[in-house]
Amino acid sequence: MEMTELEIFTQLLTASLIIMVWSFLYRENVFYRIAEHLAIGSFFGYILYMSLKTLYDKTLVPLAATWAPDLVLVTIIGILMWTRLVPKLVWPSRISISVLAGISMAVAVTGAVSGQIIGQIRPMGSWAGQDLMTNVNNIISAVAAFTSLAFFTYTKEHKGVLRVVSRIGRTFIMVCFGAILGTFLMGNLAFSIGQIPSLVTGYGVYVSVAGIILIMADLILSKRKMERS
Amino acid sequence: MSEIMRKAVVLSFAIPALFIVFSYYTGAVKSEAARLIAWPVTLANFSIILGVATFTRYHLERVTKRTEQWPFNLIAVASFMITFVLALVAKSTYDYVVSNVVIVLQISLMSFISFYNFTLFYRATRVRTAEVGLLLVSAILVMLWMAPVGEAVSPAFPTIGKWINDIPSGGAMRGILIGIAVGIIGLFVRSLIGYERSYVGG
Amino acid sequence: MSPKLSPLNQDRLIFIVYILLIALPSLLVVGLPLPVTSLAKSFHSTIEGVRDRGVVLWVTDQTFGTWVELGSGEIAIYKHLFSLAQRRGIRLVFATTYNADGAVLSASIVQDHIIPGGFAKGLKYGENWVQLGWLPGWEASLRGLVTDIHKVARADYFGTPIEKIPMMKDITSVKDIDLLGHSGYYIDEYGRQWGGLGKPWVVSISATTVAMAKPWFEKGIVTTYLNGQRGCAEYEALTGYRGLATSAMDAQSLGHLLAIAILIVPNALYLARKGLRRSNSTR
Questions:
Q1: What is the domain count for chain A?
Q2: Beta bridge pairs of residue C94
Q3: Does residue A29 lie within any of the structural domains?
Q4: Are A200 and A189 members of one domain?
Q5: Which of A14, A23, A76, C3 lies 20 to 30 A from B99 at CA?
Q6: Per the CB < 8 Å rule, is B41 touching C136?
Q7: Of C227, C250, C267, which has the smallest distance from its Cβ to B127's Cβ?
Q8: Are residues A144 and A161 located together in one domain of the fold?
Q9: Which range of residues forms the domain containing residue C263?
Q10: Chain A contacts of C206, Cβ < 8 Å?
Q11: A148 and A202, same domain (yes or no)
């Protein structure tokens, strides 16, 4: 199927941007710095638009429609946050940030007690009425939980029984970190795997070839420079 | 920070926080607590706009003072302004820029993680102790569970890898999670009584 | 590695080998078999199990970064949900709480895949589905979505006041919701706010956090989950909506093999040298 000019341009653009960023893997260079600052700038432009749009739709329009006291108050507190930009007027912004922090922490704490403590201890109690393999697994899991908690006890010196228990906990934690390392890989590989089609198919191939030629030329030039000096 | 300011900061943290906790555990004043819980939707936007303003001021200062490598700061400011103006006046062009510039650049920058994963594996993982050996064996078995190639080599690999992820690793993670929750509660109590004020920078 | 290669060049060699390996499947399709595991099957059946005219709350908390991993799975999930809306009148509420990217991505799925693909045929926005957009505040917004949606989302993504959206008249809190779901990188915050609510809850989570999220995948908390890009590929196979996740599996396999080789070979050489040094010193 014939590609439109815009489609061709898009393929060239995306491949160029990827090559400019990935050129950092060879060495720091001006193309990478340009791409980096382009990324930062365009991202902030996008996030400013999204923030203003959300503020307008979800706060300012309802505020103008209802003048609800809580909306008035939160808008004032929000505007006070901006005093942080004026060095001599920083103090009201601290109140705003404290309010935001207080609400967020309260929400987290109430959830932590029910979900992260009680919710995590409860499943450890399911021993009876299950097959042997499940019970063995439950025992191992409970021992792992208990001993890894003991490892992170800093209020008492790790001596005697606590030393043995925390050493077992450390072993389980190493297995846990290994599992995290193992699962990390798939998520991290996806970032680069997702970019490859833009570089090896369509018009992106030309950009990739140009990038390779530039890198080879730089390698040869720097080798010659080293030999001369 | 003056004493009055210190007290004001602690009170502005504590009053909404205790109100929400009180409502959660007693079931009273639910509607008012729900209004309070909706405040971050607004306050977060104000803080993001503050962040954007700080970003703009920083880069503009470097451009006007012609500091080292100021042309790059100019690129940052220019791309910021162009993207924002496009969002307001030319929505379809803005959508194109988001899809083909913003998203592509964000993913490309994040893809460094995948490359440096390998250098991490090459340089930082030497089996100097049995525990590190255990870490690596567990990592390899879990990798063989996650990737389809593990099943192609042997059906035992995904079974073992999943068991490692679910049972010993899951158990240890449960302990860590409980510890984190205790830490959150501790931080909350410290903030309530004024010992912790790092969230306001002092 | 040859001792003559500098550390910088050793890194460059690793990067080149990695890029060549992951580029290979784009040029030469291997197509390793991908068995569908019980996790993906239970994810599929949990969504299928929503009652007729039930309500699904789906929070797309992805960033542009996680999109490459979970995006095509997200598209398959949206298609599945919309097809249920067509077949059985299920009502869909989409929201984002983490950052703005999720709202943009959610809107683009509907615009670029659902509507052109005919998955919205016979459905009406505001009656069958609603996009609440970005509700910044993350954990607080997650709490608000299950306690009082109308207070936390005063308008939808397009600026329509929530009281003017017909389907939202009956949907105010978790008691009106039949299935909770979210996609993204994190789980702890969701577990704190949604765990123990007594509703089925499915998660499409990045592989990066699968190991850390395991404690949440228990009875009474998360019902089931898709583990990263692999889980998304399996889900695509189950639903028939194949995408990037399926095509990325060969590259993932090659990348993993490279990682395993880099972990094993230098360590084997290191241990062999250590053993040799030890035996030489005892002589």
A1: 3
A2: C58, C131
A3: yes
A4: no
A5: A23
A6: yes
A7: C267
A8: yes
A9: 7-25+248-282
A10: 187
A11: no
Across the interface, whether the CB atoms of A51 and C135 are under 8 A apart is answered: no
Predicted ipTM? 0.90
From first to last of the 202 residues of chain B, give the pLDDT tens digit.
Answer: 688 888 889 999 999 999 999 999 999 999 999 999 999 999 999 999 999 999 999 999 999 999 999 999 999 999 999 999 999 999 999 999 999 999 999 999 999 999 999 999 998 888 889 999 999 999 999 999 988 888 888 989 999 999 999 999 999 999 999 999 999 999 999 999 888 777 776 5
Domain definitions of chain B by residue range: 3-111, 112-166, 167-197
CB contact under 8 A, C193 and A107: yes
**For C44-189, where are the E strands, in sequence order?**
55-61, 91-96, 129-134, 179-184
- Tell me if A52 is assigned to some domain: yes
* Residue C167 DSSP code: G
Out of B86, B107, B135, whose CB is closest to A195? B107
Q: Domain count for chain C, please give it.
A: 2
Query: Is the CB of A183 less than 8 angstroms away from the CB of C65?
Result: no
Distance from CA of A15 to the nearest CA of C (A): 14
Residue C264 lies in a domain: yes
Chain A: closest CA distance from residue C159 (Å): 5
Where do we find the tokens 């470097």? Answer: B62
Is the domain of C86 the same as that of C183?
yes
Asked if residue C2 belongs to a domain, the reply is no
- Structural domain for A217, as ranges: 8-66+195-229
C30 lies in a domain? no
- The backbone region for B147, taken as left when phi is positive above 0, alpha when psi lies in -120 to 50, beta otherwise, is beta
- Measured in degrees and rounded to the nearest 5, phi and psi for residue A127 equal -100, -50
Same domain, C127 and C143: yes
Chain B segment 48-77 residues within 8 A of A by beta carbon are 48-50, 52-57, 59, 69, 72-73, 75-77
pTM of the predicted model as reported, rounded to 2 decimal places: 0.93
Q: How far apart are the C-alpha atoms of C78 and C228, rounded to whole Å?
A: 16
**CA–CA min distance C48, chain B (Å):** 25
* Nearest chain B residue (CA) to A122: B174
Q: Establish if C102 belongs to a structural domain.
A: yes
- In angstroms, rounded to a whole number, what is the distance separating the alpha carbons of residues C161 and A62? 8
How far the first Cα of chain B sits from its last, in Å, is 7
- C253 touching B (Cβ < 8 Å): yes
| CA B130 and chain centroid, separation | 33
Q: Which residues in chain B are closer than 8 Å to A139, comparing Cβ atoms? A: none
Q: How many CB atoms lie within 10 A of CB B126?
A: 15
Interchain contact B127–A (C-beta under 8 A):
no
Q: Which residue shows structure tokens 């909404």?
A: B16
Domain identity same for C217 and C267: no
